[in-house]
Amino acid sequence: MNKRFLSLMVLAGLTIGAQAKVKLSHLVGDNMIIQQQSDVRLWGWAKPKSKVVATTSWSNERSEAVAGKDGKWLLTVKSPKASYTPLSISFDDGDGKVTVNNVLAGEVWVCAGQSNMEMPIKGFGNCPVEGYNQVVLEANKHKGIHYVKVPSIMSTKPLDDANCEWKEANADNVSEASATGYFFAKTVNEAIDVPVGLIMANKGGSRVESWLDRDYLTKNTKEDLDSTHMVNKFKWDFLYPLLWGNGTFNPILNSTVKGILFYQGCSNVGDPDGQYTQRLADLVAQWRRDFKQGDIPFYFVQIAPYHNGDINGDAGPRLREQQFNAAKVIPNSGIVCTEDLVYPYEVEQIHPAQKRQVGERLAYQALNKTYGMKSIICESMTFKEMKIDGDKVLLHFDNEYGAYSRFEGIEGFEIAGADRVFHKATARHTWVDAPGPWNEAIVVSSPEVKEPVAVRYCFRNFQLGNLANAGGLPLFPFRTDNW
């Protein structure tokens, strides 16, 4: 543990203090994408009390900042409208000029979370991403998608910089980009024809507590924040609280971004009811506070089916339920369902191969809610209400958009009576020749349940359903009981 934190002190040496020439944050460099038509923050280090002047290729305006006693400086420049025209920004502190080239103005999104967000196009060991070769073959056709991968580093104190660099997502290096993030960027790029930049700051296996700050964890949790104690408490370092946020996320907080994409939750399976919902909402509030850009969009992914040690258990869906509830309380947010994006043979695969659809569904959220493309169907179906009719249960849903994916052969439903024992149910679409709201519904029943009282849909750790709406987006797992 001591060696690990010693390496962080070396990284902290990037804050240079009395260096002869102005130094930029690694997040400010060649190939970067800046948020279009914004006051873009740029930062770095210079000799204490020296003046740093920034000039741009697209404007005659100058931006200035004076380095503090610690050498840190931050200034803003007004960015132009998005385009594929390469731009440049120069910085001068009087002792030398540094120029950043091949800068594009576009849309900048953060890719945060754990391994399913980190998972690159090339996949992990024994965890491939579907369609790898096709992505590489087509990468050069999609101009203006750039990314920067922040190394996953722990620190007991918030770091100001990270050893990283912006890259163009071309055939040579697209394989290293977050698959979920890249498919999001590709979809947005194609839809609104602007460059898209991805800031990838994530860590496989991390908990939501890994990203919450010291003040919050001290006041609201019982987490032991002594790094030497963490070694004894946790079998794996990716479970540590606080440290990953300090080392991996804090370096990006000066960036000017459009919004945040988040895919995390597997390591919080088993959390008490409501705890994850609250902590995720508080994490979003923390990040919005620290980015200082108001309630920027937050779009996140509900974790996919996984055996969690017992395919018939319900720890996984209970966490998915908490994620679903978080979307209700986090302003300017959206959640995507991945219930249908796991193959039957992936029951023990925590990194499902179908990442294209995950990224696309995040893009649908952004295109509809952030970029105003209201014709895009972005919401999955959700349970609305039920009605018991003898030995049957009639169900209504929100967000069907006028169609179900199927009328027959529906899988994933279970019903229970007063004994609370759930049995597989037959489900089908039905019309009833009668006036009123219940003349059309999904009706479920089981010969083993004569007096049903509750319905569940895909509420087991690994249970796959197939009901979707007109946009092909799946029904969220749900339960009508509170058992």
TrEMBL record:
It comes from the Bacteria. Residues 107-367 form the Sialate O-acetylesterase domain. It holds the Pfam family SASA. InterPro entries: SASA (IPR005181), SGNH_hydro_sf (IPR036514), SIAE (IPR039329). Residues 1-20 form the signal peptide. Keywords: Hydrolase, Signal. This is 9-O-acetylesterase. It comes from Xylanibacter brevis. The lineage of its organism: Bacteria, Pseudomonadati, Bacteroidota, Bacteroidia, Bacteroidales.
